[in-house]
From TrEMBL:
Organism in which the protein naturally occurs: Streptomyces ficellus
Presence of the UniProt keyword Hydrolase in the record: no
Family: Belongs to the EamA transporter family.
Membrane-spanning parts: 6-23, 30-54, 60-82, 89-108, 114-132, 144-163, 169-195, 207-228, 240-263, 270-287
Isomerase keyword on record: no
Keywords: Membrane, Transmembrane, Transmembrane helix
Limits of the EamA domain: 3-130, 144-285
Residue stretches in coiled coil: none
Protein's recorded name: DMT family transporter
Cellular component, GO, one term: membrane
Length: 288
């Protein structure tokens, strides 16, 4: 079940990133983050009320609060890094956040077998290559690399924190709700500060009408991200965290394939090779 939940996580995160990337072409990134998370809060709030999950409130929810605070900061750093580019370097580097939950797993006693260690190495290499790293061309700004590494650490920290936020399914609903409420509070404060500095909160062309028209897509992005956090928590609980984290980190492969299928973007040779390596790594992890 660990592999199944973790692969579901990579699928959901990959599709959410693809959808979020498309939306940020039409509206400010912070607006996408905040609006999608508000929708997620509304849905999760209804789930918490329906299941009575609020009765499972406990100290573990502080992990959810921490994950909710780190998430928007990591995403903002990632978007800024993408703006500085080149994207072919930034995108695969962002997936290196898997080092955080893998390290946590090793510290708490996970001991993957030889095949799994091989699978971890092959899968991580595949993820980096699937992003299509640019080894030639314009030099990468130090600020872009620094921001990307900050984002990667943040993404990995969210994975590690949300896995510790609850020990039951209904408790997980509450933890995800608390995480998203914190997301909205932190992201909303950042959006407010951005507007105070003169940045637009709405698209310059179309304004609020563009946001209303994009609500279904925004809902998909927010809910897919929530579902991914949930399936990752289940994966980390049902098996070795090291295996769950690496398989969940395959989402850049999903994003690249979605771009190929929807936008007709052609995969470079290095990306195709990376996708193949990621698949081999997945098989090794499952076999181990």
């Amino acid at each position: 079940m660990t592999a199944l939940f973790a692969l579901a996580t990579s699928l959901l995160w990959g599709l959410a990133d693809f959808g979020g990337g498309l939306l940020t072409r039409r509206m400010p990134a912070l607006t996408v983050v905040v609006t999608s998370q508000i929708i997620a809060v509304a849905v999760l709030g209804a789930v918490v009320l329906a299941t009575g999950a609020w009765t499972e409130a406990g100290p573990g929810l502080w992990y959810a609060v921490a994950a909710g605070a780190v998430g928007p900061a990591a995403m903002l750093a990632f978007y800024k890094a993408l703006a500085l580019g080149p994207m072919g370097v930034v995108s695969p580097l962002g997936s290196l956040g898997v080092v955080v939950p893998v390290s946590v797993g090793l510290l708490v006693g996970d001991r993957p077998g030889l095949l799994q260690f091989a699978g971890i190495g092959v899968a991580i290499a595949g993820v980096v290559l699937a992003g299509g790293p640019e080894l030639r061309g314009a030099p990468v700004q130090r600020q872009a690399v620094l921001l990307t590494l900050v984002a990667a650490f943040g993404f990995g920290s969210v994975m590690a924190l949300i896995a510790e936020a609850s020990t039951t399914l209904t408790g997980l609903f509450l933890a995800l709700f608390v995480q998203r409420v914190t997301n909205v509070a932190v992201g909303g404060a950042a959006l407010w500060a951005s507007v105070r500095r003169g940045a637009p909160a709405l698209p310059e062309e179309g304004g609020i009408r563009v946001v209303w028209a994009a609500l279904p897509a925004l809902a998909f992005v927010g809910l897919a991200d929530v579902a991914a956090n949930g399936t990752y928590a289940l994966a980390a609980r049902s098996g070795p965290v090291t295996v769950a984290a690496v398989l969940a980190s395959l989402y850049p492969v999903v994003t690249a394939l979605a771009a190929r299928g929807v936008l007709k973007e052609r995969l470079r040779t290095v990306q195709a090779a990376g996708a193949g390596l990621a698949l081999v790594g997945t098989v090794l992890l499952a076999a181990g």
